[in-house]
Amino acid sequence: MSSQENSVEDKNVLKQKVYAAARDGRAISLFAVLWNLNQELVDEVLHSHTSENGQITTPVIIASRNGEEKVVSVLLSKFKINLEQTGTVKFDGFVLEGATALWCAAGAGHLGIVKLLLEHGADVNHATKTNSTPLRAACFDGRLDVVQCLVENGADISIPNKYNNTCLMITSYKGHSEVVRYLLEKGANPDSTAHCGATAMHFAAECGHIEVVQDLVRFNGKQIPNDYRMTPILVAAECGQSALVEFLATKVETKEEKINAFELLGASFANDKEHYDVMKAFLYLREAMHLRYSDPDNIITKGDYPCVDAYNSRIECKTLGELNAIKYDFEALHMESLAIRERILGPDNPDVPHPIIFRGAVFADNKRFDRCILLWLHAMKLRHTNKRSIAKDLLRFAQVFSQMLHIEEEVNFSSVQEVFKYAMAELTNDKERITNCEDDGDSLIEIHQTNIHTCLYLLVIILKTKHSPSELEGLYPLVYHFLKLNPFLKNNYTPLHMAVDGSTYVDDFHVNDVVSFPDSQVAHLLIKCGARVNAQDSRGNTPLHALVSQNSVVDTRKVHNTMNILIDNNAHLDICNNERKTAIDCAQREEDAGILRASDHLSLKCIAARCVCSNGIDYQGLIPPYLEEFLAVH
User: pTM of the prediction?
Assistant: First the structure.
């Protein structure tokens, strides 16, 4: 090892020692290590970043993060530190990039370190990559003393993060009433809006922080509608925050606003997994109906709203008598409530589908699958119409259809077909989202791959339903469209590869009770609709390679049936993968290899291709491109 390499290694050991001492609060050890070093080396060590447990920090940042005040004091008083250097830290499960020592100290509530850093000139408004300031970090944690210290030293209370979310909004959401009151007294604007149109009052109302809402009202906070036309009272009602609804109902301007709030509150209690209380639902619906008729000279009647089939074509009650008649008819109350929610929130509101799905799940638990499917279809249509991901909806259908087949409940062919149609549309939307994505592309790709798996599950399921030849023929154009979308996994696995590979992942919530691979029926369907039987993945493996390469315990009958389907549809047995192995070479079971050998009737074309390749004859540019491709796989 050269002297230069020794020097680099020694320097790295030194950096690690200093970092560990700062991290663990060993101020004397840190000082002893650094004191006799030259200034250039000290600067390099103190400003180097160390990666550990998902955090990338310098000594002063990690010491500030961990509350090691003596270490910070030594570093600031004895050495020259750039306090605006940044790192990556973890707080409450979140990863924050671009955090300074001051941001870390403020977020962790270390008041003494905050004061030290400010005394030594730390920028009080230095924000992270998401534009989160030290003040915002302190507000999140609810540390009034830290908040006061920062504000008194020039922290700007109005700086929003990248979502236009202010310090007042985050502390209102967290319910830190003392901090809220302090910020309001210092002039924070209660009506500032985030990118979604929400104010601090929306955030507090969502979480039921009534004391915070009362302070916001006292400082003249208004009930402004957000981008989904939701005022704070409607947000509170949608979240089942009854005390807040009753308080804010005294502050609304019109009786219609109060009626909508009580109707939405009642509807939310009827179909909310967390706050389910059907009697409360009825009482608030009744209160709203009383309000409609409270002034005989100005009765506010309900209009005639379109019926939704999924809600059992329920027509909303228009009188107190009609409502009293369903007091103990819980199913009617559930459907009435779903209709009310969709009317008040609007079909474009992203929160509308959740209770629909919950109610559908309850029906499924009671083996009333017809009602479940209608509700889930409606929820999925709402999401799809509003350009939102339906990946979870698609998988949910695969799960319930599988559950039905497993317990021998009849699954309707047309229902599965309709879901598959939506799956095709979702695959198209996936590609558009991935193309237009600026960040988080990896997660979108993962969702797309999940959707491809779900499509395969749906094909297995639909072939297990009772269907006529004409119904099956009606499925072919959909499968053809599926293949034309060119779906493939990260390893370039096509749907046919997946259908024949015994290791293809199968969801373990009901789906694996009825879906397993290889599946010869699905393979045959895919080939019939245009799947390329000799397509190669990123390792050069064809579906035939994938079928015979698995050594896991599988049904050999299924393997052989699938093998025969591939061979009968012109699977080339002599195609080599990237390791120059044919399917016969890759076969893990001798009986599989025997079947392949017996079927290995080479065409003259294949024999000629093998001769060209084995003798190293140069053919590049001398023959048509399609023949070059043919030779390449031999």
Answer: 0.87
